[in-house]
Every structure is written in C-alpha cells, then in structure tokens.
Design goal:
Blueprint lengths: L7 H9 L8 H9 L4 E4 L6 H11 L3 E5 L3 H14 L6 E4 L5 H12 L5 E4 L1 H4 L2 H7 L4 E6 L19 H8 L5 E5 L4 H11 L5 E4 L7 E7 L4 H11 L4 E5 L3 H13 L4 E4 L5 H12 L5 E4 L12 E6 L6 H8 L9 E7 L1 H11 L4 H19 L4 H8 L16 H4 L4 H9 L1
Parallel strand pairs: 1-6, 1-7, 2-4, 2-5, 3-4, 5-6, 8-13, 9-11, 9-12, 10-11, 12-13
Helix pairs in contact: 2-3, 14-15
The chain binds adenosine-5'-diphosphate and magnesium ion.
GO biological process, one term: DNA recombination
Catalytic activity: Couples ATP hydrolysis with the unwinding of duplex DNA by translocating in the 3'-5' direction
EC number: 5.6.2.4
Length: 421
C-alpha cells in the first residue's frame, strides 16, 4: 500500500474503533508515516500513545518504543493486545524475561508479527539486543516520556542520555519520534539536542485546562482545619490531597477520618497490596478522598476528581501541573488549591542540600518558579501557560475567570503597600 492510499481515518477505526482523531493526532500520525523525525508535546491524557501505535500497526516492520517504567509498558501492551487479536503484535523486552521468552519475542520480530516492541532504556544498552535489532526491519523509534532525557525535567533518567548513540547503532536512518507531556522551552531544547533531531517536525498541543480553577491560600498553623472545611464544603466529591511526607499523609488521613471524612492514605511506605487496595477504593468510590505523596497518580485515570489540594507546595511548576491535572478529566470543574508558606520552600531547599551541586542549582531554579507562582498577583493560568511557552490572554482566554487572582484582584493600594515594604 502506498502512502497516498492510506486512509488514516479508516485505519483508526479498524485498529482502535475510534471515529475521530483527538487534537493533533492525525497530523502527527501522518508525519510519522512519512518518515519524519517528529516531536510531540501534549498534556497528559492528550492521546500520545496512539500517535505512535497507529503508525506502528500500519507500517511494515517493528517500531521500538522506549518507555521508562515497566508497569507503563505492560499496561500499554495489554491495551494493544486488547484491540488487536494477534498476540505477537506487541511485546515488552526487558530483564524479567527468561531465555525461552526472549527467543519467542525475537522470532515474532523476525517473522514480522511484532509491530510494537517496548523496551526500557537500560535493556537497549545490551549488546545482544542491539546486535539483534540492527538486523531487523525497524519502522521507527519512539521515545515516550522524552523529558526524562533532560535534567531540567521533573523526572531525569541518566539512561535516557545514551539513547542517541544506541539508536545510531541500530540504524542511521530510522525516524525518531519523541513524546512528552512536560516540555518547558528548556526541556524541549534538551530533547531535540540530545536525540540529535534538531529538524524534527514539532506538534505542540495547548496546555490550557480551562475547567480547572487555580487558587493559592496562605498556609498557617490551621491548615488542617482549612482543609477539613474545604472538604466538608465539597461533601461527597472525589479529591486528592498531596503531602510531602509519608508521616504527614498518615496524620492528615487520620485527622480527616476523625472529622467524619471518608479518607484513606497512599504512599510508597505502604505494602503493594494495601496500595493497590487503596487505589481501587478510590477508583470505585468507596472513599471520597485520598491523602497521598506524589507516589500516587501515575496512570490514575479517574475522570471525576473534583479537587486536588496541595498541603505542601510541590518542587516545580511541572509537578504542580501534572498533579493538578488529575482533576476534572471529564471536563467538569476541578478545584486546584495550594497552601503556601515560604517555610516549606526552605524545607525543600534543605532536602536538596545533600545532592550534587548541579542538581541543587536546577532544583533551586525550579523552586524559585514555584515561589513566583504562589506569590504572583497576575492570572495563575497565564503564569502556568507562560512557563510552558504558551501565550494566554487573561481577559479573553478560555478559562480566564477560573483563577483566584482574576476573581479577586489585589486592590491597587495593597499592591502599593507591598512595593513599599
Ligand atoms: P497520554 O499518553 O498523552 O497521556 P494516552 O495515550 O494514555 O494519553 O491516551 C489517553 C486516553 O485517550 C486513552 O484512554 C485513550 O484510549 C484515549 N484516546 C486516545 N486517542 C483517542 C481518540 N482518537 N478518540 C478517543 N479516545 C482516544
Ligand atoms: Mg503517555
């Protein structure tokens, strides 16, 4: 089938059952099918996976997908197998496979059955795999969560740094697709530079979430009472409350329970069984509120989360955007409330003091942006979007009024007084 004959809508329907592309998906798919290096920046939930899965299913050969987490890869492979009856169509290649399994995966690739091969970056460094893959027909290479390549991102993985060299060894002319949900201009530059794809066709979706209401309140010693009041005013609604430490998670969950709120804790210190039970209880609406550390959220897709509260301010605007982004997935209102005290910033700075100097510098710069966000008197939505390199008109933009600073602008004299301090 020649490229011009491919009806992408038909293929979308055939493989995924969807009748429409979401946002920029169609253009991205076309770019990949036309063998361009491609860079995709879309917020979480934007539908990035399909951008490479559909071309992989259409094209000859195997697409290699680099992804940082085994759990994420497994989810994706299961999902792909769900939509396509062929077992061999998607595989994970990682250290958990035994020899027989590796042999089976290799055979499926050789026979052209495997369309998607998910690998962790550290598996790709194995000589044996590289030697094998360079003999195969590879359609393209997709790097998911590409911000892991940048130390300016919120999730730097040193293994991502070697990808360019490995890709070169697998094949000089394989198109590269990078995808991320968290690209500040700095991270974007890093990704393109490190992957050696300066001319990649870039597709960037808007990061504006017009149905989210952004609010910052000063954090006092009564913060727990403030949270209880807020949750009670939102009785029966689903919400997430983020705390910095496991200890605080446990304490706050208990305080809420004592006050008659249906809340449970979630953090990495709980055993796997409890964690998955608590997550299910939240998803199944047996509880209203999860009090959690940042361990909670990756891959959580509960559409009707109505509020996300930060008891402690996060360490970057990107983290804040990701965490608040779990509210209002269904398009209904999501209230994003952060409690802020400068003391918390100092605490976060102190946490970093044991780290290498370069990391501390990055961490400090990211924190200063958080301070600026918390203390700003301009539209918070404008601030966040500006951080992501996007312009926003605070008067006419979509969701402009969903913002404490816009609804209750600081009066002129207050602003003046602050200046005179
Ligand atoms: P991302 O990786 O950008 O966070 P995902 O690839 O996980 O997003 O997709 C988010 C959700 O959107 C998934 O449930 C997926 O099935 C759904 N989705 C993707 N593309 C479409 C589409 N064209 N039509 C309907 N739903 C879609
Ligand atoms: Mg994704």
């Amino acid at each position: 089938m020649s490229l011009t004959e491919i009806d992408l809508h038909k293929q979308l329907k055939k493989y995924f059952g969807f009748s429409q592309f979401k946002g920029l998906q169609e253009d991205v798919v076309a770019s990949i099918v036309h063998k361009n290096d491609t860079f995709v920046i879309m917020p979480t939930g934007g539908g990035k996976s399909l951008c490479y899965q559909l071309p992989a299913l259409i094209e000859e050969g195997t697409a290699i997908v680099v992804s940082p987490l085994i759990a994420l890869m497994k989810n994706q492979v299961d999902a792909i197998r769900g939509i396509s009856s062929e077992y061999g169509v998607a595989h994970v290649l990682n250290s958990s496979l035994n020899k027989t399994e590796v042999k089976q995966v290799k055979e499926d690739i050789i026979n052209g059955v495997t369309k998607l091969l998910y690998v962790a970056p550290e598996s790709l460094t194995k000589e044996d795999y590289v030697d094998f893959l360079k003999e195969q027909k590879i359609s393209f290479l997709a790097i998911d969560e590409a911000h892991c390549i940048s130390e300016w991102g919120h999730d730097f993985r040193p293994e991502y740094r070697n990808l360019r060299q490995i890709i070169k060894r697998i094949g000089e002319n394989i198109p590269i697709i990078a995808l991320t949900a968290t690209a500040t201009p700095k991270v974007q530059e890093d990704i393109l530079k490190n992957l050696g794809i300066p001319k990649a066709k870039t597709f960037k979706a808007s990061f504006n979430r017009p149905n989210l209401y952004y609010e910052v309140r000063p954090k006092t010693k009564n913060v727990d009472a403030d949270i209880i009041r807020f949750v009670k005013q939102n009785n029966g609604k689903s919400g997430i409350i983020y705390c910095l430490s496991r200890k605080k998670v446990e304490e706050l969950a208990q305080t809420l329970q004592v006050n008659g709120i249906n809340a449970i804790p979630y953090h990495a210190g709980l055993d796997a069984k409890t964690r998955s039970k608590h997550q299910d209880m939240f998803l199944m609406e047996e509880v209203d509120v999860v009090v959690a550390t940042i361990a909670f959220g990756m891959g959580i897709d509960k559409p009707d989360v109505r509020f996300v509260i930060h008891h402690d301010i996060p360490k970057s605007i990107e983290s804040y955007y990701q965490e608040t982004g779990r509210a209002g997935r269904d398009g209904g209102e999501g209230h994003c409330l952060a409690f802020y005290a400068y003391k918390d910033i100092e605490k976060l700075e102190k946490f970093m003091s044991g780290k290498p100097v370069a990391e501390q510098e990055v961490g400090h710069a990211l924190l200063q942006e958080v301070v600026a966000y918390a203390e700003t008197s301009i539209s918070r939505r404008k601030f966040i979007l500006h951080y992501f390199g996007e312009e926003f008109d605070e008067k006419t933009g979509d969701g402009a009024s969903m913002d404490d600073n816009v609804r209750n602008p600081k009066k002129q004299h207050e602003a003046k007084e602050e200046l005179e301090l």
